[in-house]
Amino acid sequence: MSRKRVEQLAKDQKFEEAAKAAAALREDAKRMNDEPLWTWTLIKEVQLRMALHGYETSVRFLKEEAWPPSPIQRDMLDLFYAQSLLTYYEAYSWEINSRERVEASGPVDLKAWTKDQIFAEAWAALMRVWKDRERLQDRRPKEFPDFWTPGNYPAGIRDTLRDAVVYLMARVLADTTFWTPRQTNELFLVSLDQLLSGEPLDAKSAVSALDSAAAHPLEKLRALLAEHETWCGHARRPEAAMEARFELLAALHTAFTQADDRSLIRESLAKYLAAHRKQAWWAVGQAMLAEFTQDEETPDALVRARKLALEAVELYPNSPGGLRALHLVKTIEAPDFETEMMATDRTSRRSIRLNHKNIATVFFRAYPVDLTDRIAISKDYNILPQWNEADKIIQGRSQTAAWKAKLPPTPDYREHYTYVDVPASLRPGLYIVAASAREDFARSTNRIRALDFVVSGIVMLKRTTTGGGMEAVIVSGDSGRPAAGVNVDLYSYNWQKGHQLVESQVTDVQGLAAFAARANESGPYFLMATKGADIVFDP
Fold first, then answer.
1. Cα(135)–Cα(162) distance, integer angstroms
2. Which DSSP string corresponds to 488-521?
3. What would the pLDDT profile of 417-469 be if each residue is shown by its tens digit?
4. How high is the pLDDT of residue 220?
5. What is the reported pTM?
6. Which of 99, 91, 255, 292 is nearest to 173 (CA)?
7. If we measure between CA atoms, which residue out of 292, 130, 103, 113 comes closest to residue 203?
8. Which residues touch 361 (CB under 8 Å, ≥6 apart)?
């Protein structure tokens, strides 16, 4: 039996056969004392057992089966064990969260463990590896391709197994999923000033904090990353030390959401960056500072964020941080708009509201649609054109009107509202009104928005009566006065045979058309009112 054979069986999704092959290969590896293969077969067998829906028994198997004596191989297995536990919780959290803690000694029993017990076991495994971190400092993730992917960080940033373990643990500590309710509720008791102190931390102090049952996850995170930053500094890895600081500040910015707290975090980052401009990795922190600033609610936040990002672009344009900052600049500068419209309105009114930024002009077109014809031929509950149909109309028909709106500048890079009139040339009826950033309404490098709009001088108010009937009151859109002599049609939706006219009424001097409840009929219905060229549609 060979490793290649196991991989081929797994690739063919023959998991049961592959698991048996892996077990046989594991016994061969143990006899030959081939520790890397021994480790590989253990992990592969667990993965295959999990694929066969035996998650709990698979993890128990991994814990109880004999492991190779080599410390580095045991570290890899501990990492896989911890990750398996965390993945198990993520997959079955809805069921695990309902469990009550039961104290028991003996073998691993995932089926009975609570979230806290699962996390405690995973954390213990991670701590065993972290305490062996000096052994990992000269090893590279690429030496263990079955367990790690090297990632795309530049050399010297996160390229050792020590780095990989530290940042895996940092992600776990920052994940509030694994916090207890008390840790979440008592976040305000954690000293942000202490977390931001930037004081070097020796290994003994870090171990004390990480082993403490009373320490908050963020206090442990600070200890973990401060110790790593200190070690990187002693190892003459200045940019790796900067990365540890950036990871901590990013986690704190996510955890602390109050404006005053985030202001302290930004100030701490700005002060740190001022002393490290000569390192190219400074640009990563500068981009992060720009992102933090972008999140502020102050009116000039985007202006200041863009300025900060441009400093990184100008100083280190082709570095990872410079490219990240450039992306932020382009995002802030990007033109954008959205449209809202009245469903029914007169012409020459402020019927359109644009929500826009960084765009000088938006172009409009109106395409007429015959509402009466649509009701006659439609077999859909959506009488009015939806986007797919509207797009075909925009691309395939000639517009009946075209106009444009010159928009005020937005120097703060934030979204602003501008109201736009519908031209007087539109006659009463249903239209698709389309808005475009390009005058030619081409699809490429463009944004097009389309909405249904009825030009009409009458408005329908609708209410249900106590007996289950319906009353429609038609009023003038200009004056609000009742409109007499308006024809109001009640239709029933019917997607099989087409929509059916059920009843017609003409409004009285009070603008009222009343429809009695219909025995043994529950709808759905829709209404359409017409007076001359004016129409009103209520779906």
1. 8
2. EEEEE--TTT--EEEEEEE--TT-EEEEPPPTT-
3. 999 999 999 999 999 999 999 999 998 999 999 999 999 999 999 988 888 88
4. 97
5. 0.86
6. 255
7. 130
8. 404, 405, 406, 407, 439
